[in-house]
Prior knowledge:
Number of strands: 9
Number of helices: 9
Low-confidence stretches: none
Helix content: 40-55%
Organism: Paenibacillus lutrae
CATH class of the largest domain: Alpha Beta
Order of helices and strands: HEHHEEHHEEEHHHEEEH
Largest sheet: 6 strands, antiparallel
Domain HTH iclR-type: 7-69
Domain IclR-ED: 70-253
Radius of gyration: 20 Å
CATH superfamily of the largest domain: GAF domain
Number of domains: 2
Distance between the termini: 46 Å
Function: May be an activator protein for the gylABX operon.
Oligomer: single chain
Keywords: DNA-binding, Transcription, Transcription regulation
Strand content: 15-25%
Amino acid sequence: MENTKINKSAARVMDILVLLxxxxxxxxxxxxxxxxxxxxxxxxxxxxxxVERGFLETNPQLKTYKLGLRLFEVGAAYLFNTDLHKEARxxxxxxxxxxxxxxxxxIESSGEIVYLDKMEAPSSVRTTATLGTRSPMHxxxxxxxMLAAYPDAKVRELIGGKEFVQRTPKSIGNMEDxxxxxEATRKRGYSIDDEENELDIFCLAVPVFDASDRPAAAMSVAxxxxxxxxxxxxxxxxxxxxxxxxxxxxxGYRHDRLFP
Length: 260
């Protein structure tokens, strides 16, 4: 490794991406240059190139930079080849077959959920959620399932600075109501989205854990509200919990429950 030649420009590009990924807010060119001890002239050229290619986005008014959509697309290509996606996909398909509803897999990214995979039954509802898109955590069953796996302090850290977007009249509107709902989720064993993200859609979800007992993702089943009777919800919740536990164990999780 000592004789390996390192391209300085390539290394600086990667350093910039790592730096921005670790920051909660966009950075100016001066902040980036200072943190990485890079000359302003070369930093400017690299940033402009990365913006042009879509790996960064810039705010012309504030003159700040943040990670761009193209970087997510590259990352998504990696995610589709990870153990998480490979292990979860057969279980999503099984959930779709057993429930007759749409099954989803999502992860948390920057305090939002990102849809990684879904399996749609022929007779199931078609939701607006598409792969690679984001949704607020507080309006979705998937998001609330992952949040419920964290202590309240972590929940505040993740989304405390975000606006409580109202996707529908039923969307949760403040942190206090969200924390109360997360406590109900832990006791219930699964989260629900009762027309909170889309009207006429009911969703229930559970977290998927990794070997470190951290929520790596969440799985859900979504269907038309009118079909989701209490008995049907109970059946779907049992299937979901069973599937999420199996996937979690394949990722190294060693417990027999999703919530204590």
